[in-house]
Amino acid sequence: MAWFTKVAPGLKVRAETRVKVPEGGLWQRCPDCSEIIYNEEIEKNCQVCPRCLHHFRIGARQRIEMTCDPSSFVEHDADLTAADPLDFRDSKRYRDRIRGVRRSVGENEAIVCGMGRLGGRPISIGAFEFGFLGGSMGSAVGEKVARLFDRATEHRCPAIIFCASGGARMQEGVLSLMQMAKTTGALAQFRRVRQPYLPVLTDPTTGGVAASFAMQGDVCLAEPKALVGFAGPRVIEQTIRQTLPPDFQRSEFLVEHGMVDLIVARPQIPETLGKLIDLLAG
Amino acid sequence: MLHNPTMATYFLPFEKPLVELERKLQELKEFGTGNRVQDEIKRLERRALRLREEIFRGLTRWQIVQLARHPSRPFTLDYVPHVFDEFVELHGDRRFADDASIVGGLARLGGRPLVVIGHQKGRGTKDNIHRNFGSPRPEGYRKAKRLMRLAERFERPVVTFVDTQGAYPGVGAEERGQAEAIAANLQAMMELRVPIVTAIIGEGGSGGALAIAVADRVMMLEFSIYSVITPEGCASILWRDSGRAEQAADALRLTAPDLFGLGVVDEIVREAPGGAQRDSVLTAGHLREALIRHVDELGALEPEERVNRRIAKYRRLGVFHEEQR
User: Fold this and answer.
1) Which of A179, A230, A258 sits opposite B167 (nearest CB)?
2) pLDDT in the model for residue B166
3) What top-level class would CATH report for the domain B64-315?
4) pLDDT tens-place string over residues A228-248
5) Over chain A, what is the mean pLDDT?
6) Helices of type H across B32-109
7) Would you call B264 exposed, middle or buried from its count of C-beta atoms within 10 A (0-12, 13-18, 19+)?
8) Residue B190 is nearest to which of A139, A181, A210, comparing CB atoms?
9) CB-nearest partner of A229 from B179, B264, B324
10) Record: contact A83-B317, CB cut-off 8 A
11) Cβ of A161 under 8 Å from any chain B Cβ?
12) Residues A35, A134: one domain?
């Protein structure tokens, strides 16, 4: 890159020449505004950059902890994991891939589900773990989501899902596709009890999850600048052979096109969910 | 454009020996006279039959993918006049446009009035552009949903034909809410009180297919496919090489027998010998017979019972481990 910095005198080059921030240290650089921020400060701010409000991706457990009343969350279906019905193999066998991911991520599947409380009220809640094979939905995720709706039906309480998924899990073939219908069925049963289902779309929510329960909410929330859409931007760019504008398929774009009810910054999400539940079913 | 089997001029590589034999037979029939020629014709006919059986018994998954995409394969509107006794096409989603990649309307199936909806691919460049290569945009799905609601209002069963590579991944489609349109259809179909019967007639491509395929009964034509992703798409993601589609087709298990085995499909409908493109009328007859059977069986149930069974049916789909504590 050295020749590049010489191109125009007086031109400032931002990246590369700057100080490298060591990983795993006390500081990190915001990928959006490049500010170097003290980790503790990000932590305090729900993993949101205090300067530009960039929302860092967070894990399922942290998400649930931020949303539920302190120590109210009880996990369900924690032992439900993927099988390998197609005996699928790419560069690795699917079952080996799953085993590896379970170890490295420390979760059994791409979603964590259970019962908790929000402002004292019971909720059936789930949050996707994007680090687990891109939050992809296979049979185990589909079953866990269906059971999440079952518990909400049984307890006549609201259902909340924090979505973050690349879509259906290819390695389970058409069975993954069927999870879109399966979860829709469980939701259809839940809809009979007149309690709200509130999905929160976080970065990124695409494919089979976007085209099923993520978009079937009574009220649909999204985090700022989350990528939400059916087809991923790469696929669209290949189809139309053009580069897409950076705001395409972001939450703000979805609100503008009438696909999402409201964008809520992460620290305000629990309060907003509580308010909506109150107004709909209080 | 309606389908005419005699127009089938495109042949797949593995069909070639059979096609050559048939061409020879045709010539003999036209110009040959005399007993020796008649004997030769009979001999060749027997050979052609054996050859066809041989080729089609041992088809690989990749060959079935090619058959499912055969340019001469009948599309929804090719089947409609032979499956139904009457058809009035209806247009538009009442919101934005009429998407020609999904067709639908009112039809009669041996005295049973119903609503039929199907993906529609095009034949030739101009027609294909008009049909968007069978890849619907949100307005197509919203038209389908509108017709389903119409069916429910007048207590008419819904029959759908699935034949798409997938929902269209374009800028406009995203702006108008492709994901929402599909999600809303899944919900509408899951809760619809009238019988729904689906036939996968060509390609069942992912969410774009499922959006009109949540049904009480799902049938697949013998040489159709149904998958979460195209073999090319799968290969380009897993191996960064769409050229390994053949391998991906095997891994994905996307043929009718595969899906029947997984419990995703309730019945496999026979095609004309050599594939539906050889005889769309005969294949339509098989489809008609199966549709009548399913529509009548489902019609005997109470609406509530039908919806509950539909939900329960999809609830059973999936394979996972659950460790006991």
Assistant:
1) A230
2) 96
3) alpha beta
4) 999 999 889 988 888 898 899
5) 92
6) 35-57, 61-68, 76-83
7) buried
8) A181
9) B179
10) no
11) no
12) no
